[in-house]
């Protein structure tokens, strides 16, 4: 995956309105906001380039279609039967033409036949928009709005989009870019007539002819071995029905046994097909027989892991997850995964992760685990996997938010080998890379009756959603977590998940639903006598009031919340509430009043392991003192904050401080310095989809007009 460099991966637990730039806040309302930014390179998401055999005619056809398309976006649909090599062709051609698409290459597996559920267009669009530089907090929640933003962002872009394994035209349509300089490649077993009727060009991929099949075997086994056993090789090709997938699996088995005569493989494969003939027809016979033969050649421990891997809820997995699932060491897991990759049953992808070589291979493993493993064994393996996800997510959570202690994360026994992280950036990167698997694990835990695991895992994902957004997916995860908490009758858990869900709904602008969740949580906390959490729900209701523009009500509510936190001795939470209140006051141009609350917040945060928020107080104070006319104090605050944000690696924080310094210079008549500060802030953001970028660019544009 694309490596994210989150500037705010240090103790980010912030709520409220900010006058001027906002550095990744949890709950945002009113005023001008500078949302979370991350430094992302131009997306380059294509899978590794495969070795391609005998597809020159198809490549030439694809090249011709591209040359013909001049003033409209080109979409090509590559179709053909299962196992025929559609994916290899599409990826190879995409790599061939990628230099023509400097604005990015996007990739998505639409999971038409993966066995883990179809990829939802709104989910894929969210990832695409983020990869193209749109901050997560600016990505809309609903599909129509995401489609509109995607088309806007790609309007003048030269992008290449590869969509594999589509099931329906409805999956594909929202993902087509708008630019006439773009190309989209779609693979599917189906003709998808709805796309073809709209002008999408079709390329059909057929099975190999005999010569191409021999070329594949020659590439894997060597010319000498093939020529010496030509007759057996020819029979093997026909038994594999000249399907590249079946041939590749058979060739991998033969390559692992260089002294094994091809005639023995032919005999074994023929026997397999006679056995399967009564159960399957057509291409399934060739594919299933080749997979069965390859499977039975695996050593017992390798075969066991192959079966168990089909229980993983996501479509990609790493060695640590496989180790936990099978109850083996990480070293042993890596060795066995390597053997499965050598057998062409798995494919290794970026960052040490794997996936099944083909959806048919996963289905094959799934059939075997049902047939050969007892229900208790499967349940135990799933429990071990969920335990690893829970323990690792909890570890990442502690790295990102070390001040939160005593969180319930005991639903499953911890794994024998715990995965840890070097720092907050590594923790956030892991959470983001495992996001799809973690979300699927929440659903899996709930569906298999592990309700406590489900809500604890959903709760442990909060740090991910706090830093990265993903609001729509966040709501789905937290709704499942809430249902799980209610199923196990844990009112404390129910209250927590109600608060989580309320924040997510509020972030999507669904204010009435958010209020309902917060009020439900408030009732639970009062019933349980949890005064501090009761105040937390009141705090959140104040944020909703501010979000609706009712500033007087928000100020009254936040003032009461601050007083209650002070009585409870909850200094850090009181500090955050004061920052929220200062944001409302700044929006009312009450800079001096805001300074009072921000200085108190700074005092309360002394000694708290939350340097990120302490630095944010300095940025707020810089804006407040600028507004109040104390320019020297504003300069000191902003420059100190800039230095600290640079040390923390927060590009968003640096941009906020730089913009503040530019604003200060502009107010005091130092236009050249203001320009330099704005330009530096713009360079720090380096993301033209953000509100901050647009705002600073507009300020620079006004400078140019009045030169």
UniProtKB/TrEMBL annotation:
- InterPro entries under this entry? P-loop_NTPase (IPR027417), TPR-like_helical_dom_sf (IPR011990), TPR_rpt (IPR019734)
Matching entries from SUPFAM superfamilies are given as: P-loop containing nucleoside triphosphate hydrolases (SSF52540), TPR-like (SSF48452)
One MF term in GO for this entry? Answer: ADP binding
Q: Name one Pfam family in it.
A: TPR_12
SMART domains found in the cross-reference section? TPR
Name listed for the protein in its UniProt record: Tetratricopeptide repeat protein
Source organism (scientific name):
Nonomuraea turkmeniaca
